[in-house]
């Protein structure tokens, strides 16, 4: 994470710029294979918010309860690629834990999960 | 953005961290009713998330110069159905502009299947989506959004015009109606499962036919 006294852009550069400064343009970084429906939840945000940048603290509180990466991005109004990098930084420090979304395995369809989804929709 | 939560009576408690998260895509041309359908089913007011795309590259691999005019955003709407604390289904509307293939790939990766919504007044608007899912071999069904019930064509005529396989369900629907959209999702999941069973049986058949006699 960038340290607080590094100045990358001035205020006039707009609201998006600071998250970019924080992620240092690491938009391709996907250490943990986070995708839209990876579930994330923060661990003790009240403790860890004190040792991170404000934008990271917002993210910790944004996933105080388990949510998908897509929901965290929507909540914090940050582009997906930025949120993924910032979440990965927090995962690396063990401030956030994650669970990868369902992935199909070729030739071994997960009929059990599919059936549960179908039953769940029928009950709506 | 569609507001007014469609299902205020449903609990909105989210999933557990060890829940299985699955997704389906709601696709189709511009203004065909994708967001309307997501709102009709979602337990939360549909959310919007944005991704940055650099026009020159095929992805978001270079956003170092974000002041650059070539960087645009692509938005997608999505909703959530918490089936139970262990299983959560996300509904993602694909972006209206189908030139953002990078985003489609991210959306389609790991998806169970897709609903392609069509408006019979602009049938050709859904061809890009159908082509895409056929190429990726992602199971999909077609939902014909009957704006105000005005539907001059029957399902067979629409199927013929779209040139989709007879195995693929084509269903009339009303994207605003919860019961109708729920039925659409049921049809999609049945089709997803049928497709999976078929795929499973193909290697078995091949093994049998190639077995020494
Ligand atoms: N009468 C009627 N109007 C509908 C129906 N479905 C959608 N609409 C209206 O059509 C318009 C477009 O619907 P949206 O749900 O925003 O369509 P969309 O596919 O999300 O549009 P884009 O995201 O812009 O591509 C809205 O004004 C809806 O209220 C329908 O079944 N009947
Ligand atoms: Mg929409």
Description:
The complex is a heterodimer of chains A (124) and B (213). Chain A is mainly alpha-helical and 124 residues long. Chain A has one domain (10-122). Helix content of chain A is 43%, strand content 8%. Chain A is built from six helices and three strands; from the N terminus they run αβααβααβα. Chain A has helices spanning 17-23, 45-48, 54-62, 69-76, 80-92, 111-122, and strands at 39-42, 67-68, 96-99. Chain A has a three-stranded antiparallel β-sheet with strand order 2-1-3. The longest helix of chain A is centred in the C-terminal third of the chain and has 13 residues, at 80-92. Mean pLDDT of chain A is 83; it is low at 1-13. Helix content of chain B is 31%, strand content 25%. The termini of chain B are far apart. Chain B has one domain (20-201): Rossmann fold, CATH 3.40.50. In chain B, 42% of the residues are buried. Chain B contains five helices and seven strands; from the N terminus they run E-H-E-E-E-H-E-H-E-H-E-H. Chain B has helices at 34-41, 101-108, 127-136, 155-162, 178-210; strands spanning 20-28, 47-54, 71-84, 87-93, 113-118, 140-145, 170-173. Chain B has 213 residues and is of the alpha/beta class. In chain B, strands 2-3-4-1-5-6-7 form a seven-stranded mixed β-sheet, with helices on both faces. The radius of gyration of chain B is 19 Å and the shape is globular. The longest helix of chain B has 33 residues, at 178-210. Classes of the chains: A mainly alpha (124), B alpha/beta (213). At the A-B interface, strand 1, strand 2, helix 4, helix 5 and helix 6 of A face strand 1, strand 2, strand 3, strand 4 and helix 5 of B. The structure holds guanosine-5'-triphosphate and magnesium ion.
